[in-house]
Specification:
Elements lengths: L2 H19 L2 H6 L6 H31 L5 H23 L7 H22 L7
Helix pairs in contact: 1-3, 1-5, 3-4, 4-5
């Protein structure tokens, strides 16, 4: 298994998740004067995506560290993480990608790169045993 690829994919998700959480207040201020409810909704959604990315990254790394890639649970985690990142990428492509702000345009790309790194790290380069 090419574990470093899975670690890199997970680390990329963690870093991107943290980069979502840190600027939350600035993002909210960018909307100008909005209602308190809208402030809370934007904060919740912005932080939620950050937590989701961090969780997916940590989960992928943990499964890679703990398991030997032969476990059905490990394979399921990798597949479900890939599917979730694919869904997030498609959603970002049709929503955030339309925003004229570079980080939003990077989301679909970063999600897909992470997903592919995790899958490549999990399923490629298996050593042959005799």
């Amino acid at each position: 298994m090419r574990r470093p690829l899975a670690y890199l994919g997970g680390l990329l998700l963690i870093i991107w998740g943290i980069s979502h959480i840190i600027p939350t207040n600035n993002v909210i201020k960018g909307f100008g004067p909005i209602s308190a409810d809208n402030v809370h909704i934007i904060a919740m959604e912005w932080i939620n995506e950050g937590f989701t990315l961090i969780f997916l990254g940590l989960l992928s790394i943990a499964v890679t560290v703990i398991n030997d890639n032969k476990s059905k649970v490990s394979k399921l985690v990798y597949i479900l993480t890939f599917i979730m990142l694919l869904a997030m990428s498609v959603l970002s492509l049709f929503t955030g990608f339309r925003v004229d702000f570079l980080p939003f345009k990077l989301c679909p790309l970063i999600f897909m790169i992470s997903a592919l790194l995790i899958v490549q790290g999990a399923y490629s380069g298996r050593e042959k045993t005799n």
